[in-house]
Amino acid sequence: MLIGELSRRTGVSERLLRYYERMELISAERRANGYREYDDRTVETVRRIRALLAAGLPTRIIRQVLRCTLDEVTLRPCPGVLAHLRGQLNVLDRRAADLDTARRLLRRTIAATENAAS
Fold this sequence. Notes:
With 118 residues, this protein is mainly alpha-helical. It has helices at 3-10, 14-22, 41-54, 59-65, 81-117, and strands at 29-30, 36-37. The chain has a two-stranded antiparallel ribbon with strand order 1-2. The radius of gyration is 21 Å and the shape is elongated. 14% of the residues are buried.
């Protein structure tokens, strides 16, 4: 299938599909005219990529764990997969803690500003 068809079947823009190809997440054969030709399995691969992105994984980690996917939420325990997942969870936990701190500070600032205004 051509990139337009893959885009329609996955709901992912052609531009993003080209990015996935540059990041070596998907691959395509090239026709004589230079058009990309994807096989039907690429639809499922793109769905898995989208699920992993939604879980907060960056493309550099997705590239490493994609071969271990069984479906959109399950990975085989390939070497290094759990370490990558746990590492990314730690990154997200730190971001969540930072956001929580920022929210508390902002609430305090709002309260202090409201008190000063009254």
